Amino acid sequence: MSTPNNKKALELLFERPLEPVFTARDDGKVVFVLPDSFYNEQYADVKEDIQSRFTEDVDLKIPLRELAKKPDLSFTKPLGKRRQFSLFNSLHRSIAARVIDILMNAENEELFIATCAYVKERVNPFLFQYCYAVAVQHRTDTKNFEIKPIAETFPQNFVEPAVFIDARAEGELVRNTGNRRHIDIPRNYTASDREEEQRMSYFREDIGVNSHHWHWHLVYPGYGSDEIVKKDRRGELFYYMHHQIIARYNVERFCNGLAKIKILNNIREPIAEGYFPKIISSLNNRTYPARSANSRLHDIDREDAKLEIADLERWTNRIIQAIDQGFVTDTKGNNIPLDPKKGIDILGDIIESTQLSVNPQFYGSLHNEGHNAISNCHDPDSRFLEDFGVMGDVTTAMRDPVFYRWHGFIDSIFNRHKELLSPYEDANLAFQGIHVSKFEVRIQSLKASPNTLLTYMEKSDVDLAAGLDFGPKGNVYATFTHLQHAPFEYVINVNNVDDAPKLGTCRIFICPKSDERGTLLTLNEQRLLAIELDRFTVNLVPGPNNIRQSSNKSSVTIPYERSFRKVGTKDVPTDEQRRAEFRFCGCGWPEHLLLPKGKPEGMAFDLFVMISDYTGDAVQQTNEQPDVCGDSSSFCGLKDKLYPDNRSMGFPFDRRLPEKTLNDLTNKFPNMSMIDVVIRYNDVIVDRKA
């Protein structure tokens, strides 16, 4: 059980990541008292002055324990303190894995905190924050501690730079935090409307979307000890989470009159899309490099990265050959079948790739090295001493239009495997005795018409203070504009014609009816664009059952408060149930982007529901502890548990279906239903209600 001082220490190690650990934190009220040996060479000769300066006029002093044996951190030297850190870079990943092991192996919580403070002073700040967050989430003594949102720790990765000038000025000039104005983040600062891809900036540059991507990779690191990497269906989850991102992005493109992405399947062709991110790396105060339109990929020959473009082509060919053959070959020459149950999980680990890959030397690191090739194409041999672009950083990669082209290509490889599997048979899809008799969706308003959903723009706040190193005390808020929808609920009437109660899983997806030109989509095209909205268990008594499910209970999303929550002690709920929900809860798709944008005149969709037989869905959990943040399990799984659905992720749309149209499918199976819905976009901006 953590002591109050330990809880405060864990919280403060997330604050102001570029400041030395000895500076005052929590608005100048708390300071760490370091053993003399913790001061690095830069400050060792002036430690007495530092101690007297920062320990005066504070409310709390937290002494840190001396370490009997200091960790040897010489292996981190290739990643300097002002270099950018990338999880896609193999050298950086190997360094991170060793740092995580050091932090995980601390004997108890107090030694863990002391080790973290010692390491923080000596390694790259972004490397430390990543390794620290991974360790906090996976150690048994800290795993229920809340992780600060990355947008608040490194706000420079998410916010237009001019905002920080105003934020620092506001913090210094207006001492009373309650009187500080909220700094507005401009909506369109990366391109003008002459660039058609800018129509998608509200999605690509959304703070919640990019925070989710970072947090997912935090929960599912690819390298380290087995206890943090070898998680249930990790490879399949990599496939499915990114597949859903691509489906959502393509549907959003239809909403904005744009065609589906052109996948990046020819890496020798110029990349038509340019991207000028206009955000600053807090580590070296440089802007992330831009990529001009029609840039080409080149062999990479940098100090910390080597790659031949031909390697990407070789790895692609080997993976596709394996899929076509129906098996992969491990390092011992054994053939492992790519069967319908495990095949996608095996491919996920190979394609990403992680240390779980069955043959990393042969199948390579296609996904990761593709990110590296794109992110370094502006300076492939480092002759201009430029760092990598936004595609090299998990916190910023989703801002770039080419992210979706690259992941569209990766998704096409996974889908090649899925297309080769036999279509689902009737026995897989039916649920005997279960009939869906009514299905509709309603905005939670008495005046709303059924089956019409509403979206609009909303202004919300994010606190920048924790990431303003050497900056003002107190909260400093910035206001950003994002897509939002009116809350709604599903109404599903189900009849159980059997005499006994049954358990089922309710699965809800939304599919576009047509593309950007109004051309109707085939069922197989809809299958690849099906967006999961919710999945939950239902108890069906004999006779009629009336199911009502609110949109804010989605198994895909986390609410605004968990994407952008404050994590100071005073902000933690006191109620035990709410406090449990507050923990570990940064992984999940942002709730404000649950629905596609739609169109001002209304955009037609098919809303699909299926009640599947729970006997085929059930998972026997070995850990019977209450779920922590299980409400976002579709993309993030369950903490310390098996994935909570035995079916393939995305079922029933993950494989080909036996009918020609979605209407034919739902008419054939009474446990399914489909309705026409319209999403109407109202072009207004509404202030978020507190």
UniProtKB/TrEMBL annotation:
Gene Ontology BP terms: melanin metabolic process
Residues covered by the Tyrosinase copper-binding domain: 400-411
Keywords: Copper, Disulfide bond, Metal-binding, Monooxygenase, Oxidoreductase, Secreted
GO cellular component: extracellular region
Cofactor(s) listed: Cu(2+)
MF (Gene Ontology): catechol oxidase activity; metal ion binding; tyrosinase activity
Gene3D superfamilies to which the protein is assigned, alphabetical: Di-copper center containing domain from catechol oxidase, Hemocyanin, C-terminal domain, Hemocyanin, N-terminal domain
Major subcellular location class: secreted
Localisation: Secreted
Family: Belongs to the tyrosinase family.
The protein's name: Tyrosinase copper-binding domain-containing protein
The organism of origin for this protein: Glossina brevipalpis
Lineage: Eukaryota, Metazoa, Ecdysozoa, Arthropoda, Hexapoda
